[in-house]
Amino acid sequence: MKYETIVVGALETNCYLVYCEDTRKGAVVDPGADPGKIFQVIDRAKIQPVILINSHGHIDHIGANKDIKDKYGIPLYIHERDKEMLALSHKSEFSIFLGAKESPAPDEYLKEGDEIKIGNSFLKVIHTPGHSPGSVCLLGDGLLLSGDTLFNMGVGRTDLPGGSWEELEKSIRSRIFTLPEDIMVLPGHGPSTTVGREKNSNPFIR
Fold it and tell me: pLDDT tens digits for 132-190?
């Protein structure tokens, strides 16, 4: 499994293209803004998108959903507990600031333990509520897309509607820190890290 990182929008969201090296089939994860920039990388890397995934429903992670769906005709997946955020996306005060468009409705809902086939590779869904009720992480071969649950030396904020520090801490301790320490963590913002580095050094989860 390979990936490309595209930093998009004013909040510098990490959009990921996760793809099977053999088939070039891939997932577009968290297209928060700048669809043209995402299209360019897809074309350059010769990736064939087959699925669109939102790690959660905040506007800076879903702003280009419509553009991606319109261009590639692929299904949109999100956890059911964040589905209302898609319906309200165009009403967010940040939507104009971020250049976000109203998101289409989801085609399918992500569930704990789902395995999403991408070519000859898979992404496993791990439900990690806390930053939002429907936040998920996606576990692939040697990597974890952590959305806004866990960052390099940081964690997701919990002061937004539906956020919960208790749930976030439990998700990180029980669902992420129990993974092998050499797993690379690809967060929704900022640089990558590893499970081991965060488990041993993250100042917010001690």
Answer: 999 999 999 999 999 999 999 999 999 998 999 999 999 999 999 999 999 999 999 99
**Nearest to 97, CA basis, from 174, 33, 155, 47:** 33
pLDDT digits (tens, 9 = 90+) for 69-92: 999 999 999 999 999 988 876 566
Please tell me the CATH code under which domain 2-201 is placed. 3.60.15.10
Do 11 and 30 contact (CB within 8 A), yes or no?
no
- pTM flag (> 0.70): yes
Closest by CA to 54, choosing from 118, 113, 115, 108, is 108
CA angle in degrees (0–180, nearest 5) for 138-141-146: 25
Residue type, 24: R
pLDDT band at 206 (very low <50, low <70, confident <90, very high): confident
Domain ranges of the chain: 2-201
